[in-house]
Design goal:
It is found in: Cytoplasm. Its cofactor is [4Fe-4S] cluster. By secondary structure, the chain is α+β, with helices and mostly antiparallel strands. It has two domains: 172 residues, no CATH class; 123 residues, Histidine kinase-like ATPase, C-terminal domain (Heat Shock Protein 90). It has a five-stranded mixed β-sheet, with helices on one face. Strand 1, helix 10 and strand 2 form a beta-alpha-beta unit. Helix 2 runs antiparallel to helix 4 and helix 7 packs across helix 10. The model has no long low-confidence stretch (mean pLDDT 79).
Amino acid sequence: MSAKDAWDWGLGRWEAYFGLVLVSTITYVLNDHPTERGLVAAGILLALVPWYVLFGRRYLGRETLGPGPYAYVAGLIMLCGAASLTAPESSLVLFAACAQCFMIVRWRESVAALVLLNTVPAVRFLHGDADAGTIVAFAVWTVVVIGFSAFFGLWIERIIAQSTERRELIRELETTRAELAEVSREAGVMAERERMAGEIHDTLAQGFTSILMLLQAADAYVGRDPEEARRQLGLAARTARENLAEARALVAALPPAPLGGSSLDEAVGRLTERMSEELGVTADYVLAGEPRRLTAGAEVVLLRIAQEGLANVRRHANAGRVEVRLAYDPESVRLEIRDDGVGFGPGTARGFGLHGMRERVGQVGGVFDVRSEPGAGTTVTVEVPA
């Protein structure tokens, strides 16, 4: 949005009008007085050009404090008066000079300047050979001109005030828009950081934890059961490859690696099977209903909840049996992860995991529930709209 207002765009037209009036006045003066007196009057009128360009132009249409605008108007009055004294025809320039006064100083001061600008032509006329009727007609005409000019000047002053107010409003809007854009950008950055933190926690961090546990288990079997050690190392290598695929998917903003070439129910089944292989516990996967494609957001949320829920079982539950149930209902899809581990009491669960799961489910309008008691295992239930 441009910082210029309607007054700025119209300034060139006003200056063209001033120039036209000035050129017409000089031409008129030189035509009626092709003598030295006419040349002097034309020279005085031409002096209005540098006086305006170098001094007056900066005040046109601007609310400027200080003596500058008044000094310019005083000089304008003196130059116009001198030209009128030299050649009466020079008073034609008042059609431009009067308008300038209203554009530079306030309305009351402009009316006073208007009277002074017309004083010299009036005095010169009254000192001439004029009868009473002519004088009355001149006086009436002068009053009408001054009255019309005052009304016109008041209109100009209101236009300038409205234009200035509009300019300030535009500046405030631009400032507000820039502030909102910055706030929006910061909010976007924070949201992306939170999203990446959740993705890393649910994928890479879980994978590294699993790799570490498998390597520790392999180390325990190196001396007494090489076959089991190799099996643990193989699982660790597979987990590392899956972690690498997840990292590449995050960088490329692709769907989660487990969903890259399979459906949600197949991916959850593989996660459950891997849990059984890694921990040597009984892990059952139950699929209910007819599997179908969901929105990308819903599938990602259910997959991440399955990953995080099984990771919590691996790290904290010390369970001997785990059951994962994925149920496709007509209006929703429900994921349930149940273990017979140590459980936990109300208010004792801490960390990013449960909070992150709850936020993920909320993003797709789902319901998240955790039920657990010390010594009675834990059940995590998620239901999202289909």
